[in-house]
DUF6268 domain-containing protein
Amino acid sequence: MRNIYSLVMSAALLGCSELAAAQEILSDSAQALRQQTDPKELANPSVIGMGRSKGVVVRYEMLPRFGLRSEGKREDIGNSETEVRRNNKFEIKAYIPILNRPHFKMVVGAGYFLEEFNFKQPEGLEYPLYKQLQDKDLRSLDGQLIMLKPFNEKNYLLVRVKGELNGDYGKDNDIPLHKYLKTSVEAIYGWKKSPLFSYGFGVQLGYTFGRQSIYPAVLYNRTFNDRWGIESIFPANLTVRRNLSDKSLLFAGYKVEGASYNITVSPPFQLNETVELRKSEIRARLRWEREIYDFIWFGLEGGYRYNHRFDVYDGENVNANPLIESHIKDAAFLQVDLFLVPPRRFLKQ
């Protein structure tokens, strides 16, 4: 019974993790693609009150000290326990509109993500997973294409196609880069009921489990008045928005995040070129966005992270049981970012 429950939870949470990653892209894309909201404009996912479109984003996140315990599922791997001093993340991404016609809009995006683990006693690390994480950072390099097709003033289709290289590759990497390639597609068909309310239903096709899987998504963007609103792609993300002013916004809610990385191996994993690290977590978060000067904004976000999965799988056999199951202690996190938005004079044109 416990195994069945674990399987169901894993499917739900890891499916949400992919959608959570898509939620920020879709929200940013919807804003980047939109014109000024007008009752007569063609349909799109955005609503009055949403934050300004993000063109370039630079983000840094820090998680303080937390414990990590791992259990090998093969006799030659064994168990271990350690303490992570710091878990730092750095990200930069950009969106560029390349087509802006009334009945079809297109944006290209690119991003780079880096995650590093610093252990309490790195010189004494013998456990294969910890040693690999200490020696090489986890990286993600992605490119994506986002398309919005308004059919009329009420209906629209939003599609994203994304390819990313996820793993511990670097200058000394001798594993072909295609080993790290992950692709995904998201599509949402929506209804624009009014300038204050938009919703839609869709699916996500990706490689969350190392093979293509499909997950549902429900988009719900609604502004209730000049102060309060909701932005969500359920069940991956639910955010309540408070508009403090036209230069300051406050957000509160939850988000499911996850990723899959192929990492090069060392003994006792001699049988394969790479193994796959799958991680997912649920975050309760509070976020503040504030204008610094016209087109320059900053964001400050903090909250609490609940870890669901941090396990290692056979990189060649996607259906195999995990090689290592790990438990990460829950911890608080702090994130700061700087982003560029269109100048106000462009929005008034």
In short: The first helix runs from residue 2 to 33. The two ends are 61 Å apart (CA to CA). The chain is about 15% helix and 60% strand. The first strand starts at residue 56 and ends at 63.
